[in-house]
Amino acid sequence: MEFHAIGLMSGSSLDGLDICYAKFQKENNTWKYEILKAETISYSQHWDGKLRNSINLNSEELFALHSEYGFYLGKRVQEFIGQFWLNNVDLIASHGHTVFHQPKNKFTLQIGDGRAVKILNQIPVIYDFRSQDVLMGGNGAPLVPIGDELLFSEFDACLNIGGFSNISFKKEGKRIAFDICPVNIIMNQFAKNLGKDFDENGDFARSGTVNFEILSLLNSLPFYESSAPKSLGIEWINSTILPLLEGETAENVLATFTEHAAFQLAEILNQYEIQKVLFTGGGTYNSYLIERIKNKTSAEIIIPEKELIDFKEALIFAFMGVLRMNNEINILCSATGSSADHCSGLLI
């Protein structure tokens, strides 16, 4: 059994739209993958502003953006297919862009209408992967553990450092997963105050001074004591994190938050006695952050080739689309907390 799929991922840190075209093969009940083509399309200032401000829109404006962003995604896929002369695409799986994430209130919203993607490309599209899980009592996140389970089982754990960091690993025969803490969603914001899109190599953080009072407040937040499964959203950032950082210089915020993230990530690796962990996501390029994590844990940190660092999430959403096409389980209740394993995503 073989499938060729395109996965689309737009993360909370607004680094850009990741597009991954991959081949998936199932032999003897084992899945294998190969990334064939992939690229990241940076958001223009126009789209960065629109997506960043989406949480503040009224209902009419949000529905309009949902449609407009769907056509944006469809157009980017159309260009991607043309650029690489792709003539064998079985499906497009789109994560969309998260605006609201409130699983306790039974809703989550990823904008980018998949019907618009289908209209422009005339290829089956799967989208809205999270809503069903939330309606079933789950967190709707993290979703990538199904890929970690079926594609990356040689590692004790898989840890992604993006806008938010998350981890998945086996415990007592079940794969559990949860968000650990915010990372790039905070760091990129304060790097922008210093004229950069992100804190390259952690240079700003390295030059700053850790504010230990703020660090203590961050590390004492109740979220870190709550049990898994659990997930984070921008609402929590705005209400809980940003007020603690007010009045401090951008360099010192970056120094402090890097130390906070390193502590939280290492704490999880140590707590669950993780031996060998795969690191992916944009935060993996922050050499100072990685240095601080290694200072706090003896776990073996595996940093793969650039292609997997950048596109693992888009790859797994493509894979989730393949599973959805085959009516196979693509969300694990042990990871999200929903009432049962299930097959999710709207297929059109």
TrEMBL record:
Keyword 4Fe-4S annotated: no
Signal peptide limits: none
Pfam families cross-referenced by the UniProt entry: AnmK
EC identifiers of the protein: 2.7.1.170
Keywords: Kinase, Transferase
PANTHER family the record matches: ANHYDRO-N-ACETYLMURAMIC ACID KINASE (PTHR30605:SF0)
Protein name: Anhydro-N-acetylmuramic acid kinase
Organism (species): Kaistella gelatinilytica
